[in-house]
């Protein structure tokens, strides 16, 4: 009988042997040396990540959504990334995160939740539509909850993809687009909250940011769809409006106040000499493209 091979993230790392005998500075250096491999792993998958972004963007433009499914650290990273999209890009509900065990699992492990494949399938079938995309996040590529979710998403007719750290994981064969982050053994064997999670976090940020750029939520490299929900963000909205409309703060502040502090609308109002309603209509006619609507170069 052949021995089942461990996922790479579970194997002991020869580069960190004797970790418990090192002084503090050497200990940190040794872990940091491994951390660098996370960025390299992401770089090697940029072609596949680009394929994923283009496929998902097409669905989002048609009114679909992107769903993240994960358990443990991987699932919490999905929750974190999805939570940042609405305030950063004014895109509520565009990216939805699902964590094995539900909200309770945000702060505390829910025993057995990640092992329930049927629960993942039921959750996906209950929320994923044929117009959507579903991304399963799992270091091992074998998490039953995530595998079940991808099975359900596929049954629903959605685009399926995975973000894994194991080229031999089940998910790789289950989905249309497989992003395999080859981070290898962890500094502490099996502790996938380390470089496996770092590579996942970088990849999720790449995907969601690129999607928002593709959807017109960014002009140049500026966050023009920011939701000005606090003093810091209102100041950012003011600076953006002043810069893009080439106006003084008083004019920018008046335009922002008239349109609910929506930067794109305020810039169009000032550059095109329109009221808020007219500016909103022009922006809609241009499919949210500030460059086109405001006549920016």
Cα distance spanning the termini: 67 Å
Question: The biggest beta sheet, please?
Answer: 5 strands, parallel
- Any idea of the CATH topology of the largest domain? Rossmann fold
Into which percent range does the helicity of residues fall? 40-55%
Q: Report the CATH superfamily of the largest domain.
A: Glucose-6-phosphate isomerase like protein, domain 1
Radius of gyration: 22 Å
Shape: globular
Low-pLDDT runs of 5+ residues are: none
CATH architecture of the largest domain: 3-Layer(aba) Sandwich
Question: What is the number of strand segments?
Answer: 5
Q: Count every helix, treating DSSP H or I runs of 4 or more residues as helices.
A: 12
Number of structural units classed as domains: 2
Mean pLDDT: 95
- The helix/strand series, from N terminus to C terminus, equals HHEHEHEHEHEHHHHHH
Strand residue content? 5-15%
Q: Helices and strands in order, then pairings?
A:
Layout: H1 24-44, H2 46-61, E1 66-70, H3 72-89, E2 95-99, H4 117-127, E3 133-138, H5 144-156, E4 159-164, H6 170-174, E5 177-180, H7 195-214, H8 231-245, H9 249-258, H10 263-272, H11 276-285, H12 290-294
Parallel strand pairs: 1-2, 1-3, 3-4, 4-5
Helix pairs in contact: 1-7, 2-7, 3-7, 4-5, 8-9, 8-10, 9-10, 10-11
């Amino acid at each position: 009988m052949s021995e089942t091979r461990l996922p790479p993230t579970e194997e002991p790392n020869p580069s960190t042997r004797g970790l418990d005998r090192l002084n503090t500075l050497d200990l940190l250096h040794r872990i940091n040396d491994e951390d660098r491999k996370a960025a390299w792993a992401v770089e090697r998958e940029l072609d596949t990540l680009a394929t994923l972004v283009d496929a998902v963007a097409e669905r989002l433009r048609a009114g679909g959504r992107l769903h993240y499914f994960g358990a443990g650290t991987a699932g919490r990273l999905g929750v974190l990334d999805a939570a940042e999209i609405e305030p950063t890009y004014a895109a509520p509900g565009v990216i939805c995160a699902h964590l094995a065990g539900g909200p309770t699992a945000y702060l505390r492990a829910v025993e057995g939740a990640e092992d329930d494949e049927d629960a993942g399938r039921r959750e996906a079938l209950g929320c994923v539509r044929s117009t959507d995309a579903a991304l399963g996040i799992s270091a091992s590529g074998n998490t039953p909850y995530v595998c079940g979710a991808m099975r359900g998403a596929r049954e629903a007719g959605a685009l399926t993809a995975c973000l894994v750290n194991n080229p031999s994981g089940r998910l790789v064969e289950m989905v249309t687009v497989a992003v395999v982050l080859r981070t290898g053994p962890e500094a502490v064997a099996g502790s996938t909250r380390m470089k496996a999670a770092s590579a996942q976090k970088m990849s999720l940020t790449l995907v969601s940011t690129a999607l928002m750029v593709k959807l017109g939520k960014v002009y140049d490299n500026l966050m023009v769809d920011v939701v000005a929900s606090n003093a810091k963000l209102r100041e950012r909205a003011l600076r953006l409006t002043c810069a893009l409309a080439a106006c003084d703060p008083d004019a920018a502040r008046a335009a922002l106040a008239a349109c609910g502090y929506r930067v794109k609308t305020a810039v169009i109002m000032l550059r095109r000499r329109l009221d808020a309603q007219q500016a909103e209509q022009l922006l809609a006619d241009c499919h949210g493209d500030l460059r086109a609507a405001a006549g920016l170069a």
